[in-house]
Write a structure and sequence with these properties.
It is built from 4 helices and 11 strands, in the order H-E-E-E-E-E-H-E-E-E-E-E-E-H-H. It is α+β, with helices and mostly antiparallel strands. The chain has one domain: CheA-289, Domain 4 (OB fold (Dihydrolipoamide Acetyltransferase, E2P)). The strands form 2 sheets. A 6-stranded mixed β-sheet has the order 8-1-2-11-10-9. The longest helix is centred in the C-terminal third of the chain and has 10 residues.
Length: 170
């Protein structure tokens, strides 16, 4: 069986599998995107109960309609300066999957922007920043309206050990 046609398709459209709808949000003035299928809902800030001995980027847990959900501040996870929460700060509730488990968690972001339909031709490979910077959790860079949006692979933002820690916190 000849698979060359498929090979040419992938060479021409290497990011075809990344095309689709993304929820975009801001962190420290930069735009990020998460695949809309990973997003369960967007909620305003609510009281967060701290969890002892949690990693520094885990703010604690919330009670969302009877379900306890761990909350992670993406700014802290990405090594950015903490920011005082305001009326635009919100929590994106996502479903994170690994080979072992699926975890519902909340991500604190500066603000939510919009849902964008990003085409494959607007997506470029993540540039190499050298060995010191881990870009494994970045799917690619979307160029839209003269700006760059960083597309996150939310399943890789947390390591399996961090996910287990967050699951046990909840």
């Amino acid at each position: 069986m000849d698979n060359t046609a498929g090979a040419y398709e992938t060479a021409e459209q290497p990011f075809a599998d990344l095309a689709g709808k993304y929820l975009t949000f801001t962190l420290a003035g930069e735009e990020y995107g998460i695949g809309i299928l990973k997003v369960k809902e967007i909620i305003g800030l609510m009281p967060i109960t701290p969890v002892p001995k949690a990693p520094h980027f885990v703010k604690g847990v919330i009670n969302l309609r009877g379900k306890v959900i761990p909350i992670m501040d993406l700014r802290l996870k990405f090594g950015m300066e903490p920011l005082e929460y305001d009326e635009r700060t919100c929590i994106i509730v996502v479903e994170v999957s690994t080979s072992e488990a699926s975890v519902t968690m909340g991500l604190v972001v500066d603000s939510v922007s919009e849902v964008l339909n990003i085409k494959a031709e607007d997506i470029q490979e993540t540039p190499s920043f050298g060995a010191q910077i881990d870009t494994e959790y970045i799917l690619g860079m979307a160029k839209m309206d003269g700006k760059v949006k960083i597309l996150l692979d939310i399943d890789k933002v947390l390591s399996i050990d961090e996910l287990k820690d967050m699951e046990s916190a909840a």
